Structure formats: C-alpha cells, structure tokens
Amino acid sequence: MIKAVFIDYTGTMVQEDEPYTRELLGYFLSHSDLKTPQEALKVVWGKVKEIEAASHGDAFIKNDEKVDRILAYCAENHGLNGDMEYMHNVWRKIWVHAPLYDDVKPFFEKTKQPIYVISNDDMCYLEESMKLKELTPAGIVSAETVRACKPHEAIFKKALELADAKPDEVIHIGDSITSDVEAAKAVGITPVYISRSKDVRLEGVKVIRSLDEMQ
C-alpha cells in the first residue's frame, strides 16, 4: 500500500525552459565566449553536478554559493563578464518563479496520499515558490535539510522519516535517471520516471509522459 508520494521539483514540477532561464542564457551568450544555448547549458549544468557531488556534510554549500562558484568558473574559463549581481539575481528568480507544468496542480488536488517535494534547491526558495504557486505539500525536503544533494541517499531517508513510511510504501517521481530513478531505487523506493518530451523505455521502471497518468 502506498502511503506517500515523493516528487522532484526542477524539471518535474516546474519548467526548465522558461523566461528567466532564457534571459540568463541570453546574457551568458552576449557576455562570454560561449556560442550557443546548448553549449552554455552543458557548461553550467556540468559544473552544477560537479559542485553538488562534492557538496555534503561539512563541505555542503547552499545555492547562492554554488552560483557564485559557477559564475567565477565561467569568468575564468569562458570569458564571462558583465554584471555578476544581475546574473545571480536572475538565477534566484528561476528558483522561485519557474512556472509549473499544467498537470502539477491537478496532480496535487487529486492525489489522495500526502505529497513531499524533494529538491536540491534551498528551503527558503522552495517555500516561497510553493506559496506563490498556491501548493501545499505535506512536506519539503531540501538538500540543506540533510546537508547533501540528490542523488545522496540522505535526502530520501529524511523524506521517509518525515512521511513516517517504509521504502516500499512510497513512490518517487522525477525526470532524472541518476538523481531520481537510480537514487530512489538505491534506498528501496519505487521510482516513476517522467519524460515529457519523448517516449522512453526503462527496464523495470514505470515511465510516464504526464502526471495525469498517475491518477
């Protein structure tokens, strides 16, 4: 019996291709030697994952410091110049104001089990986002809650503790194979992979194109 639903935030609940992200990418391209949005995203996300992999325990850092490190890296290695404070502030807007996918609110309204949001973003930005979007999850588990980022098992174990549930009593929905599917499976949670843009098959894993399919 499923007692709770865990759900990823970025890419699962909120859109990644949205106005503030496009604004930030445009600024990057006009103030660096990066030539295309794809190239800029590859550099930035590669650095995000590298920093998050090392961010746990005493070495844990919050989102604002991550951004400062990424901007400094891009300045040193890709000629990024311009107004660093402006770029940082746009990044903050992404964390809070990225729009929901259309199926998220109905999913929250119709799902009978309590829903817990799991994210590597900081709690203050997640709480502000939930308030603006008028969503009331049963709980939010941020990386800063456990001082470790997904796919570290600590973030899922904390969610299980908050939900007062065993791994086989929970499902986790996310759009990353590494941070959501494999990470959930590693602690015994059943993963559901959401692929909104294309058909994907994963052996032994339920794949959906929309949260509507969970009803």
Notes on the structure:
This protein is an alpha/beta fold and 215 residues long. It folds into 2 domains: 4-14 and 99-214, Rossmann fold, CATH 3.40.50; 19-97. The chain is 47% helix and 13% strand. It has a 6-stranded parallel beta sheet with strand order 3-2-1-4-5-6, sandwiched between helices. α6 (123-132) links the parallel β2 and β3 (139-142). α2 (37-54) packs across α3 (63-78) and α4 (84-97) crosses α6. The model has no long low-confidence stretch (mean pLDDT 96).
Any key phrases for this structure?
Rossmann fold; 215 residues; 13% strand; 9 helices; alpha/beta
CATH topology of the largest domain: Rossmann fold
> Based on the structure given, which CATH architecture of the largest domain is correct?
3-Layer(aba) Sandwich
Name of the CATH first level of the largest domain: Alpha Beta
Give the terminus-to-terminus CA distance: 15 Å
Reported for the largest beta sheet, the result is: 6 strands, parallel
Can you lay out the helices and strands and say which pair or pack?
Blueprint: E1 4-8, H1 19-30, H2 37-54, H3 63-78, H4 84-97, H5 104-110, E2 115-119, H6 123-132, E3 139-142, H7 143-146, H8 153-163, E4 170-174, H9 177-186, E5 190-194, E6 206-208
Parallel strand pairs: 1-2, 1-4, 2-3, 4-5, 5-6
Helix pairs in contact: 1-4, 2-3, 3-4, 4-6
Structure in a nutshell:
By secondary structure, the protein is an alpha/beta fold. The chain has helices spanning 19-30, 37-54, 63-78, 84-97, 104-110, 123-132, 143-146, 153-163, 177-186, and strands at residues 4-8, 115-119, 139-142, 170-174, 190-194, 206-208. It has 2 domains: 4-14 and 99-214, 3-Layer(aba) Sandwich (Rossmann fold), CATH 3.40.50; 19-97.
